[in-house]
Specification:
The chain has no helices and eleven strands. It is an all-beta fold. The strands form two sheets. Strands 2, 4, 5, 6, 9, 10 and 11 form a seven-stranded mixed beta sheet that branches. Strands 1-3-8-7 form a four-stranded antiparallel beta sheet, with no helix packed on it. It is globular and about 40 Å long.
């Protein structure tokens, strides 16, 4: 069982930046593919970014939704059991509850929420215009 806790959300203005963090309880954190998802009111949960587990200590493959590519950066620090989402140039349409998630496998389903086994409680990000 892995427990995930997000932090770093808040209220910002358009073009501001925020960094979200997701800390895992598991000592095997480096074995998990980690993802960020978001859900706006009245909408389905959608993929934001994912970072693959890797045998390399310095390189992790990353994947982004087109809507955030070039503005958001996902990263991980296995020594701290923590994943990050640096969000720059935030826009009102980025307003949502942001969730981190974990799964052991990596395949083409990394964008599918139901394929992730573990979820955090979510953190609210609100961007005003």
């Amino acid at each position: 069982q892995v427990q995930l806790v997000e932090s770093g959300g808040g209220l910002v203005q358009a073009e501001d930046s925020l960094r979200l963090a997701c800390t895992a309880s598991s000592g095997a954190f480096n074995r998990y593919t980690m993802g960020w998802f978001r859900q706006a009111p009245g909408k389905e949960r959608e993929f934001v970014a994912a970072i693959k587990q890797s045998g390399s200590a310095t390189y992790y493959a990353t994947y982004y939704a087109d809507s955030v590519k070039g503005r958001f950066t996902i990263s991980r620090d296995n020594a701290k059991n923590t994943m990050y989402l640096q969000m720059n140039s935030l826009q009102p349409e980025d307003t949502a509850v942001y969730y981190c998630a974990a799964r052991l496998l990596f395949d083409s389903d990394y964008i599918v929420p139901s394929k992730y086994y573990y979820w955090g409680q979510g953190t609210q990000v609100t961007v005003s215009s």
